[in-house]
Amino acid sequence: MKYIVSAPPYDETNxxxxxxxxxxxxxxxxxETACLWPQPPIYRKSxxxxxxxxxxxxxxxxxxxxxxxRGKSAPADAIVVYPEVVLGNPLKAAHVVRWLLYRPGVRHxxxxxxxxxxxxxxxxxxxxxxxxxxxxxSMWYRNRxxxxxxxxxxxxxxxxxxxxxxxxxLPETExxxxxxxxDMTHAQVNEVFNRSETFISYDEAxxxxxxxxxxxxxxxxxxxxxxxxxxxxxxxxxxxxGVSYGFDHLDHARATRHKVIGMMxxxxxxxxxxxxxxxxxxxxxxxxxxxxx
Length: 293
Hints:
Layout: E1 2-7, H1 15-29, E2 33-38, H2 47-54, E3 79-83, E4 95-100, E5 117-120, H3 128-131, E6 157-160, E7 179-180, H4 186-195, E8 198-201, H5 208-214, E9 218-221, H6 229-234, E10 243-245, H7 250-256, H8 260-290
Parallel strand pairs: 1-2, 1-3, 3-4, 4-5, 6-7, 6-8, 8-9, 9-10
């Protein structure tokens, strides 16, 4: 069976895109047949932007084995993997997997179809009343750009907004010297992290919080969905070390940030096993249906 993964162009600063491209790469590395399908520009609002997107080069990573499917409909035996933001089943696939990279409905509308199979990349993103309790498919990846340069003169605050754009802003991030890292390259962010004392994330599910801890920052998440650090950490696989949900767990974050690299490396290995499990479950579900009578 062939896997077709719907994904936006590769972007080193977009965790979801990295997950989707890395899934194809990992599937091919395990001996499966997998490719990308250029995800339509769902949220571009103007007609001009939609037309321009049709002529843009679809970016892939030179480090990944990610061939691209250019068809308008899926082969009969293909398993198509859509993220939650893709509405319906544009490839008219007979076998659909819905991969929840974020909680459906929180930021964008969703439209699922009948008989879909669900996976999530973290318990926070699952909606059991819709999925029935989805298994995990994670593609954690530690970017090796980030390192602690042990500079003695750290000062100031840096921050990221991303999916936390609806939260009220903290005074700490509104000072003239506060540095917003959204849209910076990884090399630029590593430089900012190594000269900053504190990193604040309005987004509760970005690995920049872990990257900041690796670089030696006090890494803080602005609370929103959860009432406590413990509740948040229980649903975020990378929440155990190096990060404080709110300002009350900074002692724990500081005492454990040296463990973040090891934790992320272990999650990378676990991700490969989650892909093996994904293959097993999807073939059990769709393999028989794809066989001729």
